């Protein structure tokens, strides 16, 4: 009897392992297709940002940055800031623009991260709106690296336009 139960448990474990492997492979294939599609459209992927609903790509082409469905026209960008828990730690602004280091609190979502985690965001100010790119609160500097890539690309655009 014990051998029958052990065999059933082993078969179930193998079944679940195969389901997990199939699911991961399917997700990887879907991600690769999306990346190829973006590259075919002339966009280069600067960062893959994890969200509650999956990955969102921050991409760049000759005229704009794209964050999911949002389009940020390069010629409209006035300034950018790297934010940790809503406080600016780095900023870049076009000449002649107000380069205040504050971002309105209603733009940056207040989130309780539970245990002590730093939430990294990049605020991109255009002539018409402010877009906050939430880079996450993941440990081991993943969120910090995402914020650096996004901010670096936007800062380069600002510096090249002045």
Characteristics:
four-stranded antiparallel sheet; 162 residues; elongated; 2 helices; 32% strand; 8 strands
In a few lines, what is going on in this structure?
It is built from 2 helices and 8 strands; from the N terminus they run H-E-E-E-E-E-E-E-E-H. With 162 residues, the chain is α+β, with helices and mostly antiparallel strands. The strands form 2 sheets. Strands 1-2-3-4 form a 4-stranded antiparallel β-sheet, with helices on both faces. A 4-stranded antiparallel β-sheet has the order 6-5-7-8, with helices on one face.
Number of helices: 2
Low-confidence stretches: 101-115
Spatial ordering of strands, largest sheet: 1-2-3-4
Q: What is the helix content?
A: 25-40%
Mean pLDDT: 83
Strand content: 25-35%
- The total count of strands amounts to 8
Terminal residue distance: 78 Å
| Topology as a string of helices (H) and strands (E) | HEEEEEEEEH
Structural class: alpha+beta
CA radius of gyration is 21 Å
Shape: elongated
Account of the protein in words:
This protein has 162 residues and is an alpha+beta fold. The chain has 2 helices and 8 strands; from the N terminus they run H-E-E-E-E-E-E-E-E-H. It has helices spanning 2-40, 142-161, and strands spanning 44-51, 54-60, 64-67, 70-73, 77-84, 87-93, 120-126, 130-136. The strands form 2 sheets. A 4-stranded antiparallel beta sheet has the order 1-2-3-4, sandwiched between helices. A hairpin with a 3-residue loop joins strand 7 and strand 8 (130-136). The chain is elongated and about 80 Å long. The N and C termini lie far apart (78 Å). The model is unreliable at 101-115 (pLDDT under 50).
